[in-house]
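USER: My hope is that you can spare some time for a protein that puzzles me. I am handing you a single protein, as its sequence and its fold in token form. Walk me, if you will, through where the backbone shape changes along the chain. The protein I mean follows directly.
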Amino acid sequence: MQELTSYRNRQKNLLEIINNQVAVIRSNDLVTRNHDTEFPFRQSSSFNYLCGFGEHDSLLVISPAKTTLFLRETDPFLELWMGKMMGTQRATDILDVDEAYDIKELAEKLPELLDDHQDVYVDFGDEKAMTFVKEAMTNLARRKRKKTQSPHGLKNLYDYVGALRLVKDNNERARMQRSADIAGLAHRAAMATANKERNEADIENLMEFIFKREGASGAAYGSIIAGGENALCLHYIENNSNFKDGDLILIDAGAEFQGYASDITRTFPVSGKFTEAQKEIYQLVLDAQIAAIALSINGKTLDDIHNETCRVLCEGLVNLGILEGDVKELIANGELKKYYPHGTSHWLGMDVHDQCPYKDENNETIKLAPGMSFTIEPGLYFPTNDPNIPEKYRGIGIRIEDDIMMDKDGAVNMTASVPKTISEVERACSEDPSQFLFL
């Protein structure tokens, strides 16, 4: 049985790293889509991480004495149109909070909650939260009370919550694995379905269908379904072009399951068979990824992984005659960046680019340890108009991305079931697509 998340423990851990001061964190807002309609609401990851509450117009105050939640009080009229609301009475029964107040009482109550603390921690990037805190601190200063210590320092909460989110507990790992499994199934369906009679939108819709059918809330980010030269745009999201025989399809797509993201990229041929030139580049990218995964051991860093990826890619490009010169110098001089312009890894968790820091408190690059999760995604992208590239490689864009979870023995590839060797990919492209619609 999957264990329950202890938000109390997370709140306690946060207090420890902010020296038992007080933290203020706000929910996300509803965002207008057009006129009087909104985009589907998605809670702030850090707010969700600390209390598991999914409504907007809310604010959480965590102090050593108590955890307080401000939220909208129940309203029969709003519930008629928008659905059930938690309300203050149910909040203290259901959530890991000590007190709950109507958000309308925030201006009155917040100064009291901040009093007797030296520092207030708040996300400096959240202008509304900053305004609430500054107004409360000003209110306290005007009272000129002599027997209590009003806060006089503001500190940025962002990195402290990010540091907590860096190491995933067992519950988080299970959710991330499920997210990876769902996304992997959708990628296999895409390989079996895509052909010259389909287009990018067809595949995006198919994958979104599978995400939701399997229990995900949908895509974890804007899916990239890039046929042919569209793969040369790293964040291509138009997804409206037809596929052509002879082209490759690059799909970068992940699911969000119970608040946790997966992030998978696979590249495969429209025809189901790689050309010889495509095989050469694909195998090079795959070799770089395999080397990077092998280097993912506790104590190494994401910089180590990136450097190894660059080394393998650059050696391969020299062997293919695309680059000339000493490998170390080509990397140092930025020559490799012409064809590999992005990093190899980013943290993964509640956000696809998770909020976690890359440097520790001593400004040293964080070393890998059990519970950390990240991507490994080497790629090569060859412009169509680059005369320095042999013509057979021009217009090819390939990326291969897997999701890694560290445990005590090293790296666990959560997306290992998704085909990625040349033979596996070609075999996956020949599967019966109907099986994925009726699983």
Notes: The first helix runs from residue 7 to 17. The chain has a mean pLDDT of 96. The chain has 14 helices and 19 strands. The longest strand covers residues 248-253.
